[in-house]
Design goal:
This protein has 393 residues and is of the alpha/beta class. The protein is 27% helix and 29% strand. Strands 1, 2, 3, 4, 5, 21, 22, 23 and 24 form a nine-stranded mixed sheet that branches. Strands 6, 9, 10, 11, 12, 13, 14, 15 and 16 form a nine-stranded parallel sheet that branches. Strand 14, helix 7 and strand 15 form a beta-alpha-beta unit.
Length: 393
């Protein structure tokens, strides 16, 4: 068993800047030092330290997907710990080292079952780390459902929220809500007391209602532009609020379908980089082979993203996080900026204090990328994976 791992001769994107010819020393799942190649050559390592030559490849903080429903034929709607754990394994090959399984709105018994499945899986991962739970409902607007099912929604109900919290055993990290719903302020204050990060999404809120939501600490926005009130010159709506208020942060789905690439460029001219989070919103059949694909109990088909077969409505993306990063770079952004959106920003916004940065004291959750942005290696808690399989180094 190795006592330590040192990855050297790497181009490091550390969450602050880019550093060439660097080495990163890992012990017991933590980063203990970052130094230049000259010092690496001078340093004397113990015999049980594994040395990995990156050969100039890019070393970045592991990607964090804070909004994902499934991948590889496994999804949160399965209400199964086995499916959540399979998601954990599948995600490694796409550079994801931690994720927040996202639950659709569902009838109460199913929602509680899905929550308990995630809780049961936590701590048993053989891949990407499960950070907690993202609830995408049930307190959302029937006017902005997307493909969520109307019978799954609920008016704001604090007793229901308490049941969800108890089922999660305190593991709900973030929750998508519609700020305009009656009694939302009471719900927001409850969630604030539990440390839950509230996101405005699936919302028909007016600009004024978005401001009222901000007053109750609803400061993050779910898949910007999608399933929300549009910007209008007489009422900026939810989209306008994001552009007007620098305090608001937001998710984007960078598949070229959910948001046009030029709109992402416009967004980055209006907001600082630290407020933008790449998410996949990937569905269960992402990277799944077969003709009959199902997501949230309905048949979908793939045409760059997933569409519901019944009415051709966009159902969700078929993205992986490495796809997202590649796309952002192809739109003309620097890789350093893409890494911030995929790793550093979600860690900070989701209050993961020891993730998203390559620096001493941070978790050894890393991804090694080729110059063509292919995933060469993922590292979770100091464990090394190649092509999704753990390897001895």
């Amino acid at each position: 068993m190795v006592a330590a791992i040192c990855i050297h001769n790497a181009t490091v994107f550390n969450g602050y800047s880019m550093m060439s010819n660097c080495a990163v020393l890992i012990k017991q799942g933590k980063i203990v030092d970052v130094f230049n190649e000259e010092r690496f050559l001078q340093k004397k390592f113990r015999a049980d330290t594994s040395l990995i030559d990156a050969k100039g490849a890019y070393l970045a903080p592991g990607f964090i997907d804070t909004h994902i429903h499934g991948v590889g034929g496994y999804g949160t709607e399965d209400c199964s710990a086995k499916s959540i754990l399979k998601m954990s394994e599948e995600l490694l090959q796409y550079g994801v080292t931690s994720f927040i399984p996202t639950l659709y709105s569902a009838p109460k018994p199913q929602m509680l079952k899905a929550i308990r499945a995630v809780v049961q899986a936590m701590g048993k991962e053989k891949g990407a780390r499960i950070l907690g739970i993202h609830l995408e409902g049930p307190f959302i607007s029937p006017a902005r459902l997307g493909v969520q099912l109307p019978e799954s929604l609920s008016p704001v109900d604090l007793d229901y929220m308490e049941a969800l919290w108890e089922a999660s055993e305190g593991h709900i990290i973030n929750m998508t809500v519609a700020p305009e719903l009656k009694h939302m302020r009471e719900l927001a204050l409850y969630c604030l007391s539990k440390g839950i990060i509230l996101q405005a999404g699936h919302t028909n809120a007016t600009y004024k209602q978005m401001i009222e939501g901000m007053q109750a600490r609803i400061m993050h926005v779910t898949h910007l532009f999608n399933a929300m009130s549009r910007m209008h010159h007489r009422d900026p709506g939810a989209v306008g609020a994001v552009f007007i208020h620098p305090e608001l942060s937001c998710e984007i789905i960078a598949d070229g379908i959910h948001i046009h690439p030029e709109i992402i460029k416009l967004l980055l001219r209006c907001k600082t980089l630290d407020k933008i989070v790449l998410v996949t919103d990937a569905l269960k059949p992402t990277k799944q082979k077969g003709k009959h694909l199902m997501a949230n109990g309905e048949e979908v088909y793939l045409d760059k993203c997933f569409y519901r077969k019944a009415d051709d409505a966009i159902a969700g993306s078929a993205l992986t996080m490495i796809d997202s990063v590649r796309n952002i770079v192809s739109y003309g952004f620097r890789l350093e900026e893409a890494v911030h959106m995929a790793a550093t920003n979600p860690a900070r916004i989701m209050k993961r204090e020891h993730s998203g940065v390559i620096a001493p004291g941070y978790d050894a959750d890393l991804v090694l990328l080729s110059q063509k942005l292919n995933v060469l290696m993922s590292i979770v808690d100091g464990r090394v994976y190649c092509k999704g399989k753990e390897v001895c180094v």
